[in-house]
Amino acid sequence: MQAGEGTAVERRAWLALAVSTLAALITVIDVSIVNVAFPSIRRDFGASEVGLSWVLSGYSVAVGAFLLIAGRLADQRGRLRMFLIGVAVFVVGSLCCGLAPTTGFLIAARVLQGIGSSVIGPTSLSMVLPDFPLERRSMVLGIWGASAALGAALGPSVGAVLLDLLSWRWVFLVNVPIGALLLVLTPRFVRESRDPDATGRFDVLGVPAGTLGVALVLVAVVQGGSWGYGSGATLASALVGVLLMGVVVVRSMAHPEPLLDLDLFRIRSFWSAASGQLFFTTSFICIVLFNTLLLQEYWGWSPLAAGFGVVPGPLLAAFLGGPVGSIADRVGHRNLLVFGCTVAGLSPTWLWLRVGAESDYAADVLPALLFLGVGVSCTFATFSSLGLREVPSARFGTASATLRTTSTLGFAVGVAVGMAVFAAALPLGRPAAFDRAWAFMAVTMFVGAAFCAIACPGRMVTASSKARVGS
Fold first, then answer.
1. pLDDT digits (tens, 9 = 90+) for 347-398
2. Can you tell me the distance from the alpha carbon of 34 to that of 197, in angstroms, rounded to the nearest whole number?
3. In this structure, are residues 176 and 411 in contact, taking their beta carbons and an 8 Å threshold?
4. In a shared domain, residues 152 and 214
5. Can you give the pTM of this predicted structure?
6. What's the CA gap between 121 and 431, in Å, rounded?
7. What is the DSSP string of 98-158?
8. What is the pLDDT of residues 392-418, one digit of tens each?
9. How far from chain centre, in Å, is Cα 206?
10. Structural domain boundaries, residue 229
11. Same domain, 391 and 449
């Protein structure tokens, strides 16, 4: 039985949320933890820059390509079942990464990891949300988002410690026992849920077209820097990808079980959250990347020192995420998003105005990290909370996957455009290149704040909030 408004939340539901947040934690850690291992992987395999880039890009492309079908299958076949499949695939991929004998094998294993992560993402949320009443879902998403922020904080530092004590292979192997624990605990605390009206069928043309289309667009974005954004390979990949995605949109207008649920985009809270999130993630991932580049490449810090140097921001976001999520419905998602994007935009602005070759970490970098931490705590989960606010529980998996797809696209665009801006300004000197990159991040984040102020709906009045006002 699903929780309704005003109903008590069972202890089992909180334990299910703990399992869900642990899953979110390891998938987010796995994105950031790999960056610190690149030099060791290059040394052991003699890998080229292109090969190393695909260790990261292969994971990201696989996540983005399979999210939509993963969300659709979760709603149709069962969220718990799909979650367990996703964890199992992720664990096998992690094991293969840790045992990889060559760069090519490692890239293939990273793609397998990415497929597992694409299933874990939407199912980890959608399988627990039905057990919580509407007025508690913002808090639940805040806790879930805090685990993602904690993962971003732990990734570089945990990776650096594992490299220092063991080897780069343990960056991947550490996922195996955690994943095994999830496979044991999840069935004990999580109830199966699905869309009761699902037929079990799917669009046999739209699914492969959508999966390949998203993959090709992401390939064009992430590889454009090395191929050249005007090259035939980049343009062909982007063009074919966009055409295939157009096929999906057309098919989704008439098919009874479409890959892309266009009805979701008739919900203002959903489409505004998905669009605003694109601005935010584009800037956010760029800020995270350039914070590490600043400490390692510009100031010459060791990977271990840089890993711990970037921790304060995401650690603050993890600490604030739960409490901020609990007040989202009271202060309004729109207000929280505008405030969060604005404060997050102060992070690159501060670096742009303050940082130089001789700058001081405590005075010039730490405040920027804290600005970002506050901003992330107000936005990361709030976009998901707003996006799912008016979505029927039967479509949680599909809606969550669609939101994650726009987020993944933002991550890919942010890295690609940020690095392109940086590279284009390098002839002017490294300080100017960093300034241009920070300016791009700040403008993008402030535009996102303005978009949220205009497009996102105001506070939704629920029955429980009416009762509080009446009392």
1. 999 999 888 767 788 888 899 999 998 998 888 878 888 887 788 776 777 7
2. 41
3. no
4. no
5. 0.75
6. 38
7. HT--SHHHHHHHHHHHHHHHHHHHHHHHHTTGGGS-GGGHHHHHHHHHHHHHHHHHHHHHH
8. 776 777 777 778 777 777 777 777 788
9. 24
10. 207-258
11. yes
